[in-house]
Automatic annotation (TrEMBL):
Pfam families: Cytochrome_CBB3 (PF13442)
SUPFAM superfamilies: Cytochrome c
InterPro entries recorded: Cyt_c-like_dom, Cyt_c-like_dom_sf
GO molecular function, one term: electron transfer activity
Name assigned to this protein: Cytochrome C oxidase, cbb3-type, subunit III
Amino acid sequence: MRKLTGAVCAAAAMAISTGFLLAQDMASPSEAFRIARGGQLYDKWWVVLNGTKPEETHPAYPDDGQYKADATWRCKECHGWDYKGAEGAYSSGKHFTGIVGVAGSAGADPAAIVEILRAEPHGYTADMLPDDAAEDLALFISKGQIDPTTFMSDGMSSGDAAAGQVYYEGVCVGCHGLDGKKVKDMDPLGAIAGNTVETMHKILNGQPGEAMPALRVLDPQISADLTAYAQTLPKE
Ligand code: HEC
Ligand code: HEC
């Protein structure tokens, strides 16, 4: 390779970094995008970041818990899909940990939430969650939480399935198919959708590592309607 002089190198570096900054400014994501990304990080951060899956069990995960290794590093595993921790769906059953929810941190200063993630008992290092990811996660916790139980009755979605069908056939059908069974490595959507709070979370924020859209930009009622429709699809 041709050797560049120091001055040329510096000029080239500056041109590259200026171009990079301009490109970055122009593509600077909106807060809604960052909140949805935070929601996906809450789901499974290492998949979103193309990072390394943790192998050890999280030190704050209870010894008598049912899960091990990477699963115990997902925010949702300790704090729940409904963000209510031990006061929500994970108050009993195989996901029980007794750990608080994050609903109490809705509205909190995102910088303070980042500190919570870096400190004990969490210990998410910058190698795991780089600053931009920790900041997006904090935005999600502070500004992105809905109370999914307001869209539920008897555990199922209380949304309008007929309204949801129109969105489903417009937005989801290309990937999931009319019957919800088109994605090969996934159980039928009709079966998965029985978990109302998880389905609401995924529709609002998207699926980690997939091109699935995040419908957070629309009224959350639409996500509830979609969930209600998905619950009518074949379960097997
Ligand atoms: C292994 C279990 C575990 C995991 C995984 C976990 N947390 Fe926590 N989290 C806790 C515990 C325990 C507390 C309570 C700490 C305390 O009271 O000092 C807590 C507290 C919090 C709080 C403050 C709660 C409040 O409102 O009072 C926030 C915010 C939080 N966690 C966010 C997260 C996020 C975001 C993730 C994912 C990156 C995460 N946590 C992953 C165990 C966990
Ligand atoms: C670009 C393709 C694409 C679109 C559009 C799309 N999805 Fe998905 N979706 C996927 C893929 C791929 C997965 C991941 C399957 C897996 O992990 O095995 C997924 C996962 C899901 C899951 C979680 C499944 C699980 O196992 O946890 C739900 C719920 C879901 N999609 C619902 C929807 C709904 C409702 C819509 C429309 C609003 C939609 N998707 C639009 C591709 C898409």
